[in-house]
Every structure is written in structure tokens, then in C-alpha cells.
Amino acid sequence: MSRPLAVAAGVVAAGAVALTVAVWPEGGDGGEATPPPSAGKSAVSRTPTPTPSPTKSYPLSKAPATIPAVREHTAARGPGWRPAAGGRIVIDDDELADEGKLLAGELKLAYAGDDDPRKGDVELALTGEDPDADESYTLSVKGQRVKITAPSEAGVFYGTRTLKQEVKGERTAPEGVVRDRPAKPQRGFMIDIARKHFSAEWIEDRIRELGDLKYNQLGLHFSDDQAFRIESDSHPEVVSPEHLTKAQVRRILKLAAARHITVVPEIDSPGHLGAVIKAHPSVQLVDTRGVAARGAVDISKPQAAEIVDDLLEEFADLFPGRYWHLGADEYSALMVDNPEASYPQLAAAARERYGQGARVQDLTTGWLNDRADTLRPYERQLKAWNDGFFRGGVEEAADDLEVAYWTGKEIGAREPVEYLKAGRKVVNYNDEYLYYVLGQPNAFVYPTGQRIYEQWTPLVIRGTKPVSAEYDDQILGGSFAVWCDLAGSQTPEQVAAGIRLPLRATVQKLWDPRKPALPWGDFVKLADEVG
Questions:
Q1: I want to staple 123 with a disulfide (CB 3.0 to 4.6 A). Which of 72, 117, 127, 156 is the partner?
Q2: What percent of the chain has pLDDT over 90?
């Protein structure tokens, strides 16, 4: 950059006029300076006149390139912002201290608390509106300062994630204003830690990754036929040798809370309870031939309910989040041609409780409702898999249960529109796109980010065809899921690598309802650039 020209001034003989040479200085930082006037354009006056000081000219800024893409950007002219020596993070509310300190460490800036912002700083502020209203935020870059405002701490956090991506790899946050918000309130990733043990450190790495991508749920399926993977005080006999301690879980929960991620636990029942049955074989379901049903408890036996309720209550105290997944899928008693003939004890219990017209499916629905009632004092929003909801019974699943729709392949599986027409809320786990099943059994194929990015939307709940857009508000979001059916097929490191692009494609579709602006190849390049 050239230095400013020196101002030349001369004094002529007494009585002569003074000659002043006006020179246009450079203005601002960076960009093209306006050239000085040519000789002959010198201004001659008896008294000095103000000289113009034009600023440098910048092109209009472009919207930031981030994952997920921001919903709205108002362009402006200016140099933008990059973290630099002397820059600080300041906050207007002590509740934002965690977000401020995290961003300061990531951008290698000083954390200055509630000090007044100045040039080079990033200011984080709450708007004073309803903190539970939404997860929206506004990010403004102007005058070599950044200001992120939102109604809630979560919104401010998402603004910091956008800024972090904007300046990754020596990039510059563009001048202008971002106004951003998610299309769907539930943006989840679920990991089956029951069939395969994942270390606390691996889970924590995923939480950091999810937070940077603006996910807000982490599902932990920690009980199944193969293992029970979290330390238990009420029933230590069901816990598998490889498991997470409660201290490790609390550390996971603390990190998740700092990233505004709710951990959603799942103790699946009345099927998928093999680890519990191993310690309590007397509660296993047995048919008229004496054949035990793998992983299924006999729901006509009070002891089965007592054990499961003990576990639900214990872990409701451990997991403080808003959501809980009750499972309820693939109960073996309902996967045979004639449940009443195969399991007469269940049929008898159904008639005793619900009347002569009741069937085994009604007793199973009653089990689901009873487990929901166990958790109601803990004020959780409850979910259950779609094949745990049955049509035509005398007992109906509670109205407030969210449908976690994963498949249409099960016997008697209903189309998503049946639930939607009934007014139920649905979360999309479509196994055609969002199921990463280790070893690819039962015709499952590892999902690709490209297929999700180019073909899937939250309206595509089952198979490849979307439901009507009229139901969009009832579809609360979606979740990408890792199931470890053939646990040895991949290492944890291979799983992390395999889900990297699918996770990014999924959240792009959950955050921004528009057709993606970037071709898939450019999206992959962007993922490499922003992390």
C-alpha cells in the first residue's frame, strides 16, 4: 500500500495570495484509494476550504458460505471482519458467559465480559424477548465489529457457530446482516451404544461436531438385547461389563448443554430388553410351545413392569433433558400370525383389563401408556417408534406421544399420513435415507450425503415419496441414526468418517427449507473448508 502524499505549501512575497494544494488522503483499510487530483486542479483561495475525504470503494458483500446455509443475508459494502490481535469478545448479559468464553478460545481472542464493545470486537447480546420463543439470531458485521443478537442463549450460540465458519481458514466474515433461523425445531443424531460400546470421548467429539452444525438433539439408545451400557444403581445386575459410568454421562450432559444439545435417552420396551432378561429370565415372554421370544418381556407379569419402571425413574433423574424415547417397536408377540393363540396369557390379561373384545395389541398399547405415565411426573416430551402405534384397538396410544417414524417395512406398518391425519406430531427417521446400519444387514445400504442432499426433505418420511406439504408443521424435524446391528463391521473411527457428510447434508435440509444453492461437489468442498 502506498503512503499518503506529503502536503506541499509555499508562501509567496508579501501581499500575494497564499497557494494551498489540496490532496485526497487514503480512507479506510484495504480497497482502492481515490487518486489525488492532477496538477492544474489545485484550489486557490484566501481561506482554507474543507477537503473531501472519500472512503474506499468495496464491492457488495456476498452471503457467507456455511453449513447449514444461512436463511437471509443483507449485503453491504465494507471490509468485513476477521479476528485480529486486540480483538475481544464482549457480552451484555452474564448468561452468555459460556458462549463468549467458548468463542474467545476458538478465535484466539480475549474474553472481556460485559465491557463496552470497540473496533475489532465481537459483541454477544440477548434481545430481551421470550427466551423459549425460537432459535433465531441476527449477525451484523459493520464498522469492523460483529454483533450477534438473539432472543435466547441457543440463538446466540448458533450465531457464534456461523461466525466461526465464516472466518475458518483465513476467510473473512462478510459485511452486512445475517438473519437466520431453523426450519425444524428438532434436529437430531441418534447413536446405538447398546449393541456397540462407544467411549465417552468419542461421544463428546460427536457433540462438538453436532454443535458446530446447529444440531440440537443427541439420542442415546443404551439398552437392547446385546447390552445395557450405563451404570445403574437400581439394577446393577443388568449392566454390561463395557459401559459408561454415571460420572462419564454427567460429563457428556454438561458438554451437550454447553452446545445447546438435549440428550434424548431411550430404554426400549417391551421388546429389545435382552440384557435385562439375561439377569431376570423369569420375565421373558414364552409361547405355547415353550419357545422364548428373544428380547421380549411378558407384559402380563407385574415384575416386568416393575423392573422397567425402576430403570425409567432412575435414569429420568440422571437425564434432565426435555425429551425421552420409549421405544415400543418390534414386540415379538405382535410379529406372529395369531398373537392370541401363540400367547394366550397376554390375550387373557388384555381381556381382563380392557374387556372381552381386547386383543394382545391393546395390552401392548397399555404397556406403552403405562410407561409414559411413569415418566409424566418428570415432565418429558415422549416419543415412540411408529410400529408401536396400532390401529383398530380398544386402547389407543396417548395423544401427546410423538411418532418417531422409521420404517414401512414392518408387518402392518401404516403410512405416515395416517398419523398426520389423526393430528399426531411426527419426527422423521426415514430408514431409506437416515439409517446408517453397521454391516448393512437386511438390505440396508450405508446412506450417502449426496442422496440426502439431493433427494430427501423432512416431508419424505417413508420410502422416497413426500407427504403433502399441508402436514409440514406437524413434522417436527428429523434424526440421522447409527444402528450397530453387526457391531464389528466398523470401528468407531470408521463410523465417524462414514457419517460426516450425511450429518452435514441432513442438517442442511432440517435448517433451510429451500433447495440447496450449491451443487453437491461444491457442498463437499465447503464441508472441507469450514470443518
A1: 117
A2: 87
